[in-house]
Amino acid sequence: MPITPTSKIWMDGALVDWDQAQVHVLTHTLHYGTGVFEGIRAYATARGPAVFRLRDHLQRLERSAKVLSMDTPYSVDELYEAVRDTVRASGLDACYIRPLIYLGYGEMGLNPLPCESKVSVAVWPWGAYLGEDGLASGIRLKVSSWARHDSRAMPTAAKATGMYINSSLAKVEAVRAGYDEALMCTTDGFVSEGTGENVFVIRGGRVHTPPSSAVGALEGITASSVATIARDLGYDVVETLLRRTDLYVADEAFLTGTAAEVVPIASLDDRVIGDGRPGPVTKAIQEAYFAVVRGEDDRYKDWLDYVD
Which region, left, alpha or beta, applies to residue 162 given φ > 0 means left and ψ of -120 to 50 means alpha? Predict the structure, then answer.
């Protein structure tokens, strides 16, 4: 989905014109992938644009930078205001938000410690990541031939820029084979996550999801929100190791993520999951989630940070 430019991007303390938000070709992160980022959404509500769990996302950004031994030149409070300022300047009721901490121009080589950290925040309109039809009817997945990173090789707890080469390889493989998304497994064959989403499986009315620390998956903020919503709806939610065959024989399954939101899985490796349509548990959770992010459920009002 092409990026639609907006008016301003926040860079190191100031809002600059979209076309002026530039970096040098020798920027360290461009060469070595040492950077951290977040994906956040603002939703249209009756009270104006509201950013979903903004502080939680920014705190994870800060933790990711710490894992990579990167300095964070701005506090969470300062970045909180930077995000709100950028959304406000865009004039959009709803948008995708991309904060990025990267290493700038000035030093080259595999030691990133001498490099200065830079920060940007960009926003733009972005619809359903896996398509409106995917949200309504479900998506087709295949298990990728690429294994998810082992936490002994890469810090899977960090949302780091260079680590997403792994996801991109899996995504390209799946799309070229005619699927919507890839499911990634560990080298031991346990289900980890999608290329950028957490996985949930329903059997017998119980909701299962892999323990992120055991399978190299990112601790998803949307996933934790969905788990809370599911429990509040009366479903048991358990963390358990899963194999691909657990999805083959599941009653229902879905993916969660800031970009993907809550999207049903219709099939995996051409095995239809359930009856191939979003099941009752998935639909109940999906409907509740969208009510929350649109400010229609006061039980979760603390998850919304209003721009105005």
Answer: alpha
Token representation of residue 182: 């890839």
pLDDT digits (tens, 9 = 90+) for 43-87: 999 999 999 999 999 999 999 999 999 999 999 999 999 999 999
Distance from C-alpha of 237 to C-alpha of 249, rounded to nearest angstrom: 18
Question: Which of 285, 283, 267, 287 has the alpha carbon at shortest distance from 275?
Answer: 267
- Residue partners of 44: CB distance under 8 A and separation at least 6: 93, 94, 294
Domains of the chain: 8-124 (3.30.470.10), 132-293 (3.20.10.10)
Catalytic residues: 159
The pLDDT value given to residue 43: 98
93/62 Cα distance (integer angstroms): 27
Q: Global pTM?
A: 0.96
d(CA 280, CA 288): 12
Beta bridge partners of 102: 35, 118
